[in-house]
Amino acid sequence: MPDSGLYRSKAADCLSAAQEAQRPCDRKLRLSMANSWLSLALRDEALDKLVASGDTNEPIKTDLVWGTASDPFVSRGRP
Fold this sequence. Notes:
The protein has 79 residues and is mainly α. It is built from three helices and no strands.
């Protein structure tokens, strides 16, 4: 199974494509795809952390919302 590094790489590729997009609809699509890849990365990391801790009673929390303070790309100053 792919790891979160691959998902983050795919998200970065989508962000690059969004910056190069000529049309707003293409940019929006690429940003949406980046958000989906990043969400997969975060879920994968949360699952890895949960499995490593051995605590299977704790729910996996992934509350990423694109364009908000919980968005890692926003907090890093990325578009």
